[in-house]
Amino acid sequence: MRRRTTARAVGVLFFIATAAGVLSVVFLGQPDTELSREAVIQGARTTTTGALMVLIMAAAIAMIPPLIFPVLKERSEPLALGYVVSRTVEVVLLLPGAIGPLMVVAVSREASSPNSSNADARLQAAYTWSQTYDDWGHPVSSIFFCLSVLLLNWVLYRSSMVPRLISAWALAAVAPYLADGLLVMFGVLSLSSPLHTILIVPLAVNEMVLALWLLTRGFNPATPLADASTTRRAEPT
């Protein structure tokens, strides 16, 4: 019963994290090339909502490792610890994605005050900081996300806690996702490029399939990540 509850909770958190991530992109959109205090203030509610979605996504991701760790630990404690660490680093790297837009909104409101000095300079500095995160924050967090996918799905594949097709799909789909992060990091690809979507969709869909499986079927009975030959030697002849 406990494993079933854990599986359902993890599945729900996967759905929440993905839904919040998609909504954050919808509300925050792409950064404008021309910045004005009036435009920022007019879109303050939308920007704040987008930042809130980033925080919800980060919170959902942060809750997954402690929930699934006991299950993964039964199969491989080092890989389970690696999963916890990689997802924790990912969450830390996601937080500036919420802080940056909120900082721009706060500075723009302060800059609208008649007594504010160097308003445009401070607003531009905050906006530059937020845009800089778009250049490095997404790709670096993507690298740690890909690492967590590899660790999680390698354990799932070896132990058959979910159908091997699902975990094998994730292990294959992580390659284009990682390539996307590296291409964005080196400025070869932008987040608005159609290729960006093409590269990340296979793994995004896989995560939703995994979440649905955990919600409806839970974890399959699994065997530890022990070598099969060791098990055979332990059997009486």
TrEMBL record:
<dbReference type="InterPro" id="IPR025495">
    <property type="entry name" value="DUF4386"/>
</dbReference>
<feature type="transmembrane region" description="Helical">
    <location>
        <begin position="50"/>
        <end position="72"/>
    </location>
</feature>
<feature type="transmembrane region" description="Helical">
    <location>
        <begin position="195"/>
        <end position="215"/>
    </location>
</feature>
<feature type="transmembrane region" description="Helical">
    <location>
        <begin position="168"/>
        <end position="189"/>
    </location>
</feature>
<keyword id="KW-0472">Membrane</keyword>
<feature type="transmembrane region" description="Helical">
    <location>
        <begin position="136"/>
        <end position="156"/>
    </location>
</feature>
<keyword id="KW-1133">Transmembrane helix</keyword>
<dbReference type="Pfam" id="PF14329">
    <property type="entry name" value="DUF4386"/>
</dbReference>
<feature type="transmembrane region" description="Helical">
    <location>
        <begin position="84"/>
        <end position="107"/>
    </location>
</feature>
<keyword id="KW-0812">Transmembrane</keyword>
<feature type="transmembrane region" description="Helical">
    <location>
        <begin position="12"/>
        <end position="30"/>
    </location>
</feature>
<protein>
    <submittedName>
        <fullName>Uncharacterized protein DUF4386</fullName>
    </submittedName>
</protein>
